Amino acid sequence: MATHSLSTLILVVVFTVTAADAEVDTEALSCPEQQQAFEGSCFEFVALQRSFLSAQGWCERGGGHLAFIQNDETQHFLQKHLQPELDWWLGLAPASLSLSLDSAVGPLSWLDGSNVSYSNWLGEPVPGAGCGYISKDSGFRWGTSSNCSQEFHFICQFESGHSLACADHKAVLQCGSGQVIEVGNSFSGRKTPHYCRTSRSPSDTSLLEKCGWVDVVDVVSEFCNGQQFCEVAADVMSFGESCPGLGNYLSIKYLCKDGSKDGKSGYGYFTIPLFDVSATLLPTVSPSNQNNTHTTISHSTPNSTFPSVPLPCQTTSTAQLYYPPTCTIDPPIGDVLSPFNITCTTVEPFCCSGPCSFCLTTVDGNYLYCGSDLGMRSLFLPIGDKNHHYSLGLKVIVKNVDGHTINTTLFTQVRDTSCDSTIQDLQTLVLHYVTQLQQNGLFSASILAQMFQFVSRRLNRGLNNKEEKSAKKKLREEMLADMCAALTTGEPLKILKEVHMTADVVLSLVTQEDELTYNAELQACCVLTSVSKSLISMAPTEGDVTGLMLQAATTIIQASSNILKVSANIEKQSEISSLLLNITDHVQSALLANKKPNQQPASLTSPLISLYVNRLSPDKLQNQFFSFENRDSASFMLPSLGPGILPSVEPVDVRMLSFGINPFSWSKGDPISGAVGGLSLTRENGSVIPVTNLREEIEVLLPRSEAVDLNSTFLDLRKYSTLAINVTTPNTSLVLKLEPLEKISLQLYLGFQYYPNDTHYKAKMQLPHLESPPEERYTWVLGPKDMAVDAGVYYLLVRPSVGAPVNSSNASVFIMSFAAQCKYWDETKTNWSDCGCRVGPRTTPMFTQCLCTHLTFFGSSFFVMPNKVDVSRTAELFATFSQNPVVVCFVCAVFLVYILAVIWARRKDLKDKVKVKVTVLEDNDPLADYRYLLVIGTGHRRGASTSSHVTVTLTGSVWESEPHHLTDPDKPVFERGGVDMFLLTTPVSLGELQSIRLWHDNSGKHPAWYVNKVMVQDVETGQKWHFLCSSWLAIDMGEGTLDKVFPVATDKDLKGFSNLFFMKTAKDFCDGHIWYSVVSRPASSNFTRVQRISCCFSLLLCTMLTSIIFWGIPTDPSEQSMDVGNIKFSWKQVMIGIQSSIIMFPVNLLIVSIFRFTRPRKKIQKVEEDQLPKSGSPQQEKNHISPQWCKQTDITVEYVIKDIKRILRMLTKAVRCPIPMTTLESDRTDVNRLLSHVEDIIRQQDLHTGRFGFEHTQKEFVSVYKLYRQHLYKQLQNLEKELRLLSPSQFSKAGRYSQAVLQVQRMKGLLEPHLSIQDHVTCISSPGAGRSGGRKKCCQKGLPWWFLFVGWFLVAATSGVSAFFTMLYGLTYGKQRSISWLISMTVSFFESLLLTQPIKVLGFAIFFALVVKSVDNGDDDDEYIYMVRNQVLTYSDDPDDVRISRRDSTCSFYQPPPPSDIGKMKDKMIKDQKAFALIMEILIYVLFLCVLLTAAYGQRDPNAYFLTQHIQQSFSNGISDSMSHEDVFTWANSTLLKNIFGPCSGFITDGNSKLVGNARLRQVRVQKDSCKTASSMRRSVPDCHAPYSWEVEDVGSYGPGWNSLVDGNTSKTLLTPWQYQTQSTLRAHPVWGGVALYRGGGFAVVLGPDQQSANSVLQYLFDNTWLDVYTRALFVEFTVYNANVNLFCIVTLMLETTAVGAFQYRTELQNVRLFQTTDGVHILASEAIYFLFILYYMFLQCKLMKQQKWEYFRNKWNLLELAIILLSWSAFSVFIKRTVQGNQDLQYYHDHKNQFPSFYETAAADSALGYIIAFLVLLATIKMWHLMRLNAKLNMITSTLQRAWTDISSFIVVIIIMFLAYSVASNLLFGWKLYTYKTLVDAAMAMVSLQLGIFNYAEVLDLNPVLGAFIIGSCIIFMTFVVLNLFISVILEAFSQEQRHHKPSEEEEIVDLMFVKICSFFGVKTKKKQ
Questions:
Q1: What is the pairing mode between strands 1024-1033 and 65-66?
Q2: How, if at all, do strands 713-716 and 812-820 pair?
Q3: pTM of the predicted model as reported, rounded to 2 decimal places
Q4: How far is CA 1005 from the centre of its chain?
């Protein structure tokens, strides 16, 4: 090898680059698996978040740079691999001076200094930007930023044939197989400031101007040309410092040529030493240079001149160039689980000064081994490069004690065979190699970590089945145990990289949570404990921790986090939690070791564990806040700790931990939710500094894992001020957060299970806290120290601290309440405690603020473009109607619905016309002409309308009106939501109205009335008064009153939010909502229902058109859809619905506005004033008030007296002068005396005018009498007319008539001077004549009447066009797409109906109430006011007619109901309700019982009995009482086979029942010698076989003839009858026989499909003695189906025998219906209705249980109801079980038709269902007794049994004793011979039959006449004659006592009332009881 001087390095060509011609490899670029190839470069998309500089450094370490996008093809390529929701760094940097290129154009350039010729900017680049990136959610546009420290993902670009290396890194040159390197342009130095940056851009550009570069082509070519792989170190000492300010980098470009031309290929690595002027580069080639090694040249000392031959440990001034080590690897090729041995040798002088260290890494720098042993044995290597035949480069570095290093590179092939291995194979291999390592003494954690890291990767991928998952669990546990053992018994880890590798393996092993056992968790904690301890000893001696240590610590914490998550679900968590706390403590100690004070803290985060450490001086700890970067971890705020706690000089270590879940959940107690945080202060030696009993509290913020979504409660303090708070957990802190709308003072009272007040409360608080921060001023925290917080309901009373009452305050407040706890972990008691901690006021649903005195652990819009349709294809499209009728039929259906709706709406509009009128009250005074318009609104609540007689009284400052009955003979009044208008007249003006009084008489069917509001308007002046009532006038609702006075509403009341909001909401929903108003439209509105429906019709069709236009636009294929059954819809459909509504809103608004604001067309009709319109005509309704009074000709003196009294009463009211009541109430008072009283008052008032007055609005005092004089004059005029109609003869004395006339005339004369001329004329003329002309409206609001035609034209046009084009689009789309559109349109319709319009109404109402605050003055009523003002009250054409009042003051409704009557009404109403409830309860229960009986009998078929009887009789032929084994076979061959295989193939007997599957024979046997023979009889009786029992049953397997099974060639079919089969195998069930209960197993054989096969089977069994003395029962089992009655019959024929040897015949048949018949729909319906009833009764019982609590279970009828419900659900469960099991059995039959299909499980479920239903019917029938509880006779029977229960219970005991005695005696005496008494139960049944007279006397007397007669006679005497008669006498005595002392039930009256109601319903008259 030639040498070169330094001059060779300097002789380079600057600014000139010549590329050598070379053969370019045309093969496709090969990239690693994590990279993508494109246009000669490999791109890697790094899923890490780094800053710009960190990202560029990451790429440079691999020899690349951040990606350049220089053409559109690259942009599109990158888009395919990028995630659009992320930001990605690009290689864009600020344009600056380049040393090789011209100045860049634009603000940014690529990192190599080249211009940005292609761009894809998102807007213009930001001026001053320092970096560029691909912006997220922008269509992959480029963005710029001046903040390059933010962390984004990034793209690295590795150019083929170009390698870049920064200082102290290596440039790697590599070619493919058979190719060699040819170096091209290469330099060392700097051409651009952006590569290999160690900091941000330099502020001084002069540093770049001082930079240069050196051409190193010759030097690099010398060593790398002809090699296949070469590495070049970018060493400053090798190439010199060409850019001292910014640093150098090495750039090498090369080509790969075919290696066959040069005939050599290999690997090269070199470092060029930099000498002084006389230095010489002396590369040395090793004599043993092979293809798997390469040349290494280490640098010599700077003072060396020439190398010399090294002598052993010779010290010289010359440099020594050592040969690289010689290494071999065995085996040369292997896999990840193959142990490799690497042996290296070095030249002796290199290691002569001391032992050398050997380190093995991959060529990428990944650590593998470090040690002093030259022989590296049993190493497990990582997988090689898949793209290069799994080639793996290894680097061996040898370092001596002098610090010199030599290295070499090895290459081998390491394949991944773990993918092809099963888990069991891996487990075997791991066990083998672990054992081998132990035997070889190489059992260490580092070697195990090398092997296990690849095994763990295999375990973490792939899906698991149950068996594989179990194997994985075991393998993980074994590997962790091996690592724990290696660390426990072996030496601790001493190298940081080994610690990191070991922790990383543990993390990989604990990743899969469901594959970790408890032992695996313990072993993992063992490994982490040892690793964390080792980490402490590796801490740096000074300065902060290294990056590798942080990585290792982070890995340990992440593994601990996974273990903590898994351990939270196991019971033995305490041990694991303790180990994890130790691990975190070790990690904290390692991070704190040798740390300098007051530096940056060290923080580690993982999903569940966050760790923080720092070392601070004591003064830095005061008032210090400690937190993590993530918001899910705890944070602490230390106060001023005070003296004596912290050391004065020594720094303090801060250790903080935060757990995402509770690590102490094993402690039983209150659950801890959210984060658990801990903070401790320690000294440098690790001792804890105790922090307790602080004066200032430590603030701890503990986030909650899931934020609680709490709704705020709005409290309007004007109406209500109490809030109920349900606390479910005791001993918690109650946090109340208030947000008043105005900053006011609030007084809070808290009561527990009672409503608090000023004097009775549990806690009290005044808010705000002025000394607290603003966010805490309206917060009240009540902890256990403040009061004992128990579980239950708390009531919070909120009152504003103002002088006025609460109801007058305008305060409103939002209240949010929740409970929280603050606890700490008591390490001594190992439990959670709250001592010294409290909940802070900053607590929110997101986190809890704890204040403690010590330290420990604490607990996008888019718009869719429309589609198009071709109108010219109309005929063609409609021709396809038959293939796609969806849209056309739907549009036609809409038209049909519209027509029907218009017909309905027209009828409703005609009815509304009748309601639009002003009702003139019939009881108005005919002489009173001062008019008031009353507008009364009834609420919209349910039951708001009334049928009662409503009366009103107006009270003003001047006068109070008479009570007026509000009624209208022509129309119903006070309907729900209705508005009624009445005209009320008074003699004079009432003045300023003060109140209105309303009452009713509670009559009619629905007397309750909810009055919403009342408006009263003075017709004469136009003044209005509003009364906000909003009250119930009912005895059973609201305040329970029928009479109420409502004050006039003030302006403040009218403008209150509540009134304005509800008024606007109600008006807009009833009138504004286009859909709802169709039903609730106001009758007075000009916008008719027909018009509203037409607008809805137009809107619907237009919305359909816009929806179908936008339908089917292509969208993002990743868009998710929602499924509702078979219906799918996506968010695009929802958006189209909203968009369609927005488009059609203006058109619809125009049509609605035209109809709403167009004035109605009025017909001009001239009516004479003296001519009345016809009754009922519209003209009469609008312009006239119908006559209310008529001419009276039969006037009597009595009537005149009544009239004078009325005048006198009103006069005294006007002058406020009392008059004796005897005068008014006496019937004998004469006319003259009454008139004298009137005259005296008039004269007195003329003398004292102005004595009684009021303050007028003009501030004048005017007498009330002055106002009344005019009306009094009219009354006297009318009285004079009445007297003229009388004759003097009608008076008792002569002269009184003339005197009365003169008195009236004198009084008129007294009044005439005080009347004005106009008033006098008015009084003389007819009333109202002065206003007959009226006043015309100055203007009319609204559009002209002809605008209606415009509106109807728009409706027709929009509807027609929309319908036409909608059908065209539908026909264009096709059927499936049309159906999909129809779903979208339906969504749009309901969205408009339920969302858009209600939101609009509510939004306008809120805006109206909060912003506008304008009161509706009732402008809609101006038309009626105008009409009333111009009314001509025409009474008669004759001015001499007398006006007679129609008021009947004797009517009861003119007086408010007294309180006593209201009480009676309430009692009557309660009785009516109870009677109605009882009737409904009985009717509902009768219906329930009918449904139950229908369902019950639907489960049974009467044909089942006949089917059973038929089968029993068919198979009982040939049966005798005693049958032998031969008789059994004879019966089987004859009767059995004949009936099973009937004349019809496949049917039994007569051919009506189908045989399902095959029949089966099954026997049960007992074991040989199953009993013991008496010793004296053993010789004569050698064998004993006991009766059947489960204990002695034979369950063995035999051969034919019950011989031992020895012949293995016997057919399985022949062996089956001789082998025992279990119950589950046979699919049978236990059977009750006459002798015993037999198991479902046994020895079974199938007879076969036909009679021939069955004969063969029976013959085989007979020949081999299948039945013998050990047989105890033979079962013939088969199933038949009778299609005629749709029943399955499961048949079991039993032949059982006791030990005596004779067979007895018995049958068991079960019928079940598995197929529902077509005529059984009513049964299914009844079953469904029945369970609806059960749900109803469950709801009732739950309410009752909530009310009565534990008392509920003491009522026997409640228990009966509960039993019925439980049995019903049990029946439901069994019904499901029967259905499912039946389907399974049928499926088994279809799959195995040649076998015996067992339906036993189904039959058992059906039987259980029958039993349950029978008991249900029994209990339900018994409940009828409870329903008749109000009947006096039944109640007496119940009371009798209760009274006699004590005596009855005693007699029952006596009866039971005697009954038992006789049963036992008869069983012992007769049971040995008589069948009736064979068992004790049978004997007991016989005794019962004896009492009933059903007894067989003969058999007893025949057996033993004397003893039998004694037993029977004594039993009859004692039991029947004595005990039972005494028993009955006790009941009779109790009944007689109950009759004498019977107390009638309180509910008997209700029964009588119920009986009356029922009789009245059917028209039967009943007599009332006195």
A1: unpaired
A2: antiparallel
A3: 0.42
A4: 44
